[in-house]
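FIELD: query
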Amino acid sequence: MSHRSSQEVKIVKLDILDTDYAAMVAGEPIADERKQRLESTDPQAFKYISRQISRYRYGCHTQEERDDALYNIGAIVGLMTPSDIEDVNDRLRHTGHLYLTQGERLQILNWLEDELAVSFERGVHE
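FIELD: result
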């Protein structure tokens, strides 16, 4: 008799959100040569950006959440000027929601594609 037959079989249900969370925490895999460019300026920035990319890809279900992730990326890499940041904050104060303009989103998405070779399906998250 098998040792297994005397034990009960355990079934563990996995929630897809658990795997999404694991991917977000792990960060986005980015090619080493592109990673090195960012790490040379600030190693912590790369880890933060990597997690924001994963958050955008797996954890954001609303446009506001996606815009928040993109805003964080844009701010840390210097794509958002102080004037841009003030505009976003002003919109937040007036509407109660953080949102980026189409141009701001496109600028950050293009930077991600050009600098890190990370692309997202256009139109799905814009």
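FIELD: remark
The chain is about 65% helix and 0% strand.
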